[in-house]
Write a structure and sequence with these properties.
67% helix; 55 residues; elongated; mainly alpha; single chain; 2 helices
């Protein structure tokens, strides 16, 4: 599984957690983690992603 796929999977899980109406502290932590994932995704170079079919 490529790095991008792993990050997107983690992002999906965190977004699902946000939909469950977490408490304020948990919401802040989830939003912080989502920001980190978004940053990582934006910084990834094309060679960091696996070629199609190798996920």
């Amino acid at each position: 599984m490529s790095t991008v796929a792993k990050l997107l999977g983690r992002k999906r899980v965190l977004l699902e957690q946000l939909e469950s109406n977490p408490g304020s502290n948990e919401r802040d932590e989830i939003e912080r983690l989502l920001a980190q994932i978004d940053t990582a995704l934006s910084l990834l170079e094309p060679e960091d992603a696996a070629p199609p079919g190798e996920e």
